[in-house]
């Protein structure tokens, strides 16, 4: 039974990654392959907070990790994706 639950949870994570890639490709017309990096940054944030500040409740740690991922995504939008969308190459290749 534990193998089934592990497989379902891992499959759900894979589905979320695929959904994120699909949404970024459909909305931005840019293939963003940094989803794994952002996800790992959130996981490392949660691990770091649980090991260095053990008195923090775990739901709060998860909320902080989500905000860290959102901040990284916002910075990527500001610093990278806006420049790509404004470039001549993107304007020439739009359908």
Q: Average pLDDT across residues? A: 88
> How many beta-strand elements?
0
Largest sheet: none
Coarse structural class: mainly alpha
Number of domains: 1
Uncertain parts: none
Order of helix and strand elements from N to C terminus: HHHH
Cα Rg? 17 Å
Q: How large a portion of the residues is in β-strands, by DSSP E? A: under 5%
- Summed up, the helix count is 4
Q: Rough shape?
A: flat
The rounded distance between the terminal residues' Cα atoms is: 48 Å
Give the proportion of residues in helices: over 70%
Describe this structure in words.
By secondary structure, this protein is an all-alpha fold. It has one domain (2-93). The protein is built from four helices and no strands. Helix 2 (35-52) packs antiparallel against helix 3 (58-86). The termini are far apart.
In brief:
With 95 residues, this protein is mostly helical. The protein is 84% helix and 0% strand. The chain has one domain.
Q: What's the layout of helices and strands?
A:
Elements: H1 2-28, H2 35-52, H3 58-86, H4 88-93
Helix pairs in contact: 2-3
Keywords:
0% strand; mainly alpha; 95 residues
